[in-house]
From TrEMBL:
Keywords: Repeat. Gene3D superfamilies: Tetratricopeptide repeat domain. One of its GO terms (cellular component) is chloroplast. The keyword Transferase does not apply. PPR repeats lie at residues 184-218, 289-323, 324-358, 359-393, 394-428, 429-463. This is Pentatricopeptide repeat-containing protein. Belongs to the PPR family. P subfamily. Residues 42-66 are annotated as: Disordered. Pfam families: PPR, PPR_2, PPR_3. One of its GO terms (biological process) is mitochondria-nucleus signaling pathway.
Amino acid sequence: MESLQSSFLPPTLELQGCPLKTRRVPQFTGIRCGVSADPWTLSDGSNLDKPKPRSKRAKNPLSDDNARRIIKGKSRYLSSLRRNQGPRAQTPRWVRRSPEQMVQYLMDDRNGHLYGKHVSAAIQAVRSLSQKQEGSYDMRKVMSSFVAKLTFREMCVVLKEQRGWRQVRDFFAWMKLQLCYRPSAIAYTIVLRAYGQVGKITLAEETFLEMLDAGCQPDEIACGTMLCTYARWGRHHPMLSFYSALQQRGVLLSLSVFNFMLSSLHKKSLHQHVILIYNHMAAQKVVPNHFTFTLVISSLLKLGLLLDAFSIFDTMKKLGFAPEEVTYSLLISSYVKAANSDQALRLYQDMRSLDIIPSNFTCASLLTLYYKNRDYSKALSLFSEMERYKIQVDEVIYGLLVRIYGKLGLYDDAEKTFEEAQRLGLLRDEKTYNAMAQVYLSAKMYTKALHTMEMMRSQNIRLSRFAYIILFKCYVMKDDLESAELAFQSLSSTGIPDTRSCSDMLYIYCRQNLFDKAKNFTLQIRKDNVVFDEELCWKVMKVYSKEGMRVEAEQFIEEISQSEPLKNTKFVRTLYITSLSEHGKVEKETGSLATSGVLDPNALELMLCLYLACGDDIKTGYTLDLLLEASDGVFLANRLVGKIIHGGDAFRAEILLGLLIKRDVAGKKYVCRCGRFCRLWC
């Protein structure tokens, strides 16, 4: 004790021995030591503060209860690590092992590894061959150190872990030389999958035949792998033949294989086969999933089977699958094309009730529907909703908005919308340019319409037939004959000209008094078998009557009177009956036609002008009598006198006026005008 005396210790301090049991004095300070033991190390048993077992008498008590906590904690950590790394994470799984399995596990040095040490070495040895050229190595020499060390299961593991198809091929050839090898569908399936991923169809087919020759019965996995290989690389004919063979043998395929086949067929637009395979699935009672229903509905809509598609859609909803936006979009678009606006709007309301935000394609379909129904207020409301949900507006929607603003007469808004699309760089399709040009034509802004079409041509956008029609219309309204003729030639190069364009061409010829060109043009369009309507017939007959072309006129009347769309019209029927009238034949056949309203006064006016130009007094008088019996006939006959005077033909005007005076129906105004004109002409 004297040796322990020191100035460092107070003299009153007495050193006492530590009692066996002392009461712990609670510490009220909140300060703890920052250094703690490693949570993954096992306890040495000296810690007296270890947790007590749950039961008083544990069934299998451990030497240290902290070991169980550490093992379970590490298991949870590795499980979370596997989930975060994906399905191929190289982390061990916690499994129950017998003592013999544990001894083998330790001998393989697999602690913390997915495979044993020798298996990992074999995998790495074969993988390293991918850096060498084909034929520069011998697989027997590479794997010489692994002979008789790998079991069949381990060889399958090495085969499965290869990334290159050449390594799979060479290792499988070495694998078949080992004593522990036995032909198995598992190994062949691994090889088939490796070949299928890189498109080695021929090698896959040879491997499948080799499997059959080896006496291995292919299971549904091997067959499904072969089908997926065909489907992945677009070999649809072999795929369907192989599928038919599997059907005959009663092989049941999984849903994933069916979906793979359906997706491949759908991409190649083989929709009939999609429906056929779906029916086979239903017959085999394979329950489809969300992806299956989406593909089948799309294929049915592509085939125009709208009712069947909607039936599948109802089945999908009854099974609890929530349809995606693309499914709603396809159905809405199909109903819009079928002019079933009520069903399309119901589907849209159903989609919005599920809080599904529509895509720009769906919005374009609805805008088209509103445009066709002339419900422009709803169209503008939908566009506002698109802005609220920040739905991307594409060129199609901008084009529809331009048309809608044009129909509403909001030409400034249409122009601003077009300029906004141009500023965003969305103008790549001619339809938007055509829509803006049509709006300008409706507003009689012919210069701007022509500028829009010229701007489209400067963008190297290929003009369609419809674009040529609009361009030709712009030149006609600008009264630019030379450019109009060039545009009409370009239009004719795309096919037979349309009726409206031919009518406009005759209009510009007659407007500029180019009746020689008009005559040649009428002969050309008759030769080209242009489809005539009533307006074009009227303009052609106007040219013939102006030039006195009686023979051509009668041939033309004979042609159009046999045309199915025109022969029953009042205008053509009047032309035909008047051309046959001679010495009262018409009255004998049909009675008083003019008074009964059967004859068209405008057609009678044209025929009267034709017979005046030909100098046929008999038919002129007879046609005039028919015209005077018609409603407003007197007015039309006197107006015709004024037209002839305006055209500068005093001789015809005098003849017609004399016939009207003889019938006591001549207007005083036209008599005076004709008298003054005749005196000037004389």
